[in-house]
Sequence to fold (893 residues):
Amino acid sequence: MAQRKSLNVNGKSVQITIDDPDMPLLYALRDNLALHGPRFGCGLEQCGACTVHVDGKAVRSCVTPLSSLTAQQKVVTLEGLGTPQRLHPVQRAFIEEQAVQCGYCINGMIMESAAFLARTKNPTEAQVKDALANNLCRCGTHARIVKAVMRAAGA
Amino acid sequence: MTIHASRRDVLKRGGALVVSFSFAGASGETFAQGAKPLAITEVDSFLAIDARGVVTVYSGKVDLGTGVATALPQIVADELDVPLNRIKLVQGDTALTPDQGTTWGSLSIQVGGMQLRNAAATARAALLEEAAKRLSAKTEDLRVVDGVVSAGGKRVSYGELIGGKSFALKLDHAKPAAGKDPKDYKVVGKPVPRVDIPDKVTGRFIYMQDFRVPGMLHGRVVRPPAIGATLESVDEASIKNVAGVVKVVRQGNFLGVVAESEWGAIKAAQRLKASWSKSQMLPDAAKLWDEVRATKVVKDEVTSNVGNTAEAVSQAGAKTLNATYDFAIHTHGSIGPSCAVAEFKDGKLTSWSASQATHNLRKQLATMFGIPADNVRCIYIEGSGCYGRNGHEDAAADAALLAKAVGRPVRVQWSRADEHGWDPKGPPTLVDLRAAMDGANVITAWESEFFIPQQTAGSFLVPLVAATLAGMPAADDIAPGNIFQNSAIPYKFANIKTICRRLASTPFRPSWIRTPGRMQNTYANECFVDELAAAANADPVEFRLKHLDPNDKRGIEVLNRAAALAKWDKRPSPRRDQRGEVATGRGVAYCKYELTRTYIAAVAEVEVKRSTGDIRVTKFYLAHDCGQIINPDGLRNQLDGNVIQTLSRTLIEELKYDRSAVTSLDWASYPILRFPQIPELVYDLIDRPNERPWGAGEPAAAVVPSAISNAVFDAIGVRLRSVPYTPDKVTAAMKGAA
Fold:
């Protein structure tokens, strides 16, 4: 049953071995490719912790079957968005605003915001809040997250 | 200071664990339970300095996402005069860190930090004494900069003085060593950026959920569909088509699967057919409060008793007021479900989890498997935010049981439904209050009864689900935490009696969730004080100030500063000048945490839509006095968490269940607050550098539910006495008042 699957992740072509072509992308990224940015939160596309970009759009990797992805589609995770040496503006803004408590949801907050800011210039605070309305945070970091996204928008 | 060469080996091994998780797989080799000093009465339990001058801090208190992994080293950095980047932190490892108690109750800085400060101050004094000898100088002439001691042009580093050797010095935390004068602090009191954030925003941070060991398998649990159900049969053939299944593990009513891959384990757990007996142990949710009231009281705890309330109430001319408040059952709701890895090797168990109490977990796992505690090592790895005893310990027990069954390391990741369905719950709280007022509107009596579950004496070991289901040895404790706290009040009425009626049972396995009891009790007390102020036609802030102990200056100051911060509109509640669809109001609440420490006062501003009963909290003001502030930015971050999380609990959250089990198993059925509902947050931090630091992770949460209820009363003249304040309840309360 083992089969090969080709993906493009963080700018590189990769091949993984899987048992089930319908395995969600999240497990390929975490277990096959040892990436830690996308996180398991619910498996139900309710919380956003698993968010990655596919061709620039924020998608919930926990409900994205591998079979729906081609080898050409560009998957980008938090690790691919920016590195400690070359931070993405949203990542930099989250550090500057110290917009993290436990940080478990932060992958989703950053990936969702980066995709939102790529299509929305000069957003209002209300627009940022609406854009993140389907990303859950339990620690209560919301106010700082909004400030960080506004800061990144102005960068 | 004496030198113990054997210490070097221990430190080497400890150091390896500090710098890299890659050593974790070699747990057999690094197993050092019992090898390193752990007593909280020894400097070596807390601190080690290697030959390069790198300081390793061993903390039994752990970072649950609160920022203490930055704040605790700040304390040590100042006391030792070493830069923050030369300090490494080891947290919550039963082989390496002292048992400083569970990471709970807002005590990581207040207790854990002060023990560390004592250890660092003691170590520094010994280092300076040794340096004085080596440099032939007087200790008062020594200067320390970045871990290098100098005098008269000569210098010696901490690494040269102690490197890799033990301090062998005792500590008395009741009589701590004289530390630095607070005016000399360079790092404490500064908004030092958190050490973990760069890794967390770039995907480099290793959470418990990311942790792996070589040869590890993936486990999932299959919980009963009803609490108390018996496992009758399992059809293993139902998962024969799932690739990589290693074993179906069945022990009593415990059922789990182990597979080579995580996805294989998930599919196997979802598809495994099992039949269970019917069980209906839960009360009718619609009659929860009747059930609570009907539960046997095993003990009455009188938490305060002043004068004679019965006499005051029966006084001729006394007007009495009564109210009953209730607070729903809540789940912890960490965004990342609980996760743990366990390995059995040569009869010894190593458990990696995000437990807030690894030393307690160690005892529980030893009991469960009938092995000596010395054969169990529990290692903390930070997980998703933890707000009390959630499912981490249960996942650790699941992983241990499965690892033992398959003879290989097993990782257990709970599903969202496992977490919502099986984490222990914040118990339902019911409070009856009565007061008497004389003809001159003077409060003559205050009586309250808190119907809350009992707490097994001296035990905070919440039973492990796996042990219970598998019929393995487990303490049969009820451990909701210290939920009696703040049942007594900070106000000086002539006659006061407050009683906790401790109940024999509560519908769900209870535990503590952020601000346990203090939140529920303060909610009832601060709402009822507001009722008294309204009955006396008094301004709610003035009414409180009038009844606070005039000698409690810090309490009075915090309340005055909250009022000033919010530009408090001085008048009795409710407002009577609004007729429109949207009514606005402001409410105040005050708390002296546990009546012994952190002071908080809050003002909430709300809008209430009369047609729908929707409440919108627009602004939330907080004045906060936790004594010496270690990291003001970290404190603000914690206050955000206190306010926003508690707004969510107050406005929205309520566990749903039928007669068999929890039915709110996801975020659709157990919703929490979302971005568009966040208010503007305004704080006044009262820093007192010369006072001892108190906790800040919980206290501010205590005032949130009452500040909102009081603001709603101000807006629409209707008192909300049932958390959560859903639109249905608001609408019903408006109808009842009309």
